[in-house]
Known about the structure:
Aminopeptidase; eight-stranded mixed β-sheet; 16 strands
Amino acid sequence: xxxxxxxxxxxxxxxxxxxxxxxxxxxxxxxxxxxxxxxxxxxxxxxxxxxxxxxxxxxxxxxxxxxxxxxxxxxxxxxxxxxxxxxxxxxxxxxxxxxxxxxxxxxxxxxxxxxxxxxxxxxxxxxxxxxxxxxxxxxxxxxxxxxxxxxxxxxxxxxxxxxxxxxxxxxxxxxxxxxxxxxxxxxxxxxxxxxxxxxxxxxxxxxxxxxxxxxxxxxxxxxxxxxxxxxxxxxxxxxxxxxxxxxxxxxxxxxxxxxxxxxxxxxxxxxxxxxxxxxxxxxxxxxxxxxxxxxxxxxxxxxxxxxxxxxxxxxxxxxxxxxxxxxxxxxxxxxxxxxxxxxxxxxxxxxxxxxxxxxxxxxxxxxxxxxxxxxxxxxxxxxxxxxxxxxxxxxxxxxxxxxxxxx
Length: 407
């Protein structure tokens, strides 16, 4: 059963009954159908010219030029090569945002796509070419209904997600100077079959917490280092093998890192992958007590705990409930699935935005098993069906329209 906030089950029933397709949906659908070939060509161009984290200059330039042509107010160079664009509708309403990441991944494996990468050692095997194109598809669709649109659409084209630094860099660079959103949405490609989307209320992607235990003393440092390493390892509730399967959200995956320092001081590093905020607080409290217990005459022990150093994703439960209802009305019940928490071998920096506004991310199916295409991110044979672009844009347009209209 999904982990829902109190009262969410009642709201789920109400949302399912009340949400019908938005009145602007037919025009959105027609615009996307008319632009599908151009959008696919744009995606193929991005796939052929991938750019690593912090190097997304060409991608950002193409995105910004198209957004300006569509009448958006555009900021460039935000947090590196980030692009932020605002479309003001003809009717009053809230500000709602959609984020698309743009960077590619180092990969020397052969690219199976006929529009294969032309950049040696770099490929789009995490689907950010799909994400970026989907963001532009939303821009095309909403620009076509601008005068009837309630509120404002803010599009965030983010660099450096693969380094888990792009979201923070954009926030530090006045990301929301054009407008502050009431809600922020995103998608990520996934090995679901094309035509399906999935999410989970609450914990979705594990964040990565960085741990440093500093030991200072004149003797017994070697034994204390061993004890500190054991404390970090003992924080785990699952093994690496278990981390590849279905998990309840309260898990902790621990990785004991290197030991630094010389002379009288040693620093023992570790990383904890945690999705659930309550599990994070329990783990932190246990470590604090255990590290204090390491201290003795002649030896001090201190803990530095950086929660959500990589933020992960903590979905707003009500946003997911209402989005699910709209997606079912648009695509049918079978197209919307509950995924559970994403295995903690994957993470995301999208959660950095939840310090500003509530957020929700969906997994977007891009696999086509009839053609032998499986969209598992960061695998050598990653292939994403172009059909996911317009389907995903239709889906997210419906969700965004619902939020802009107060639903």
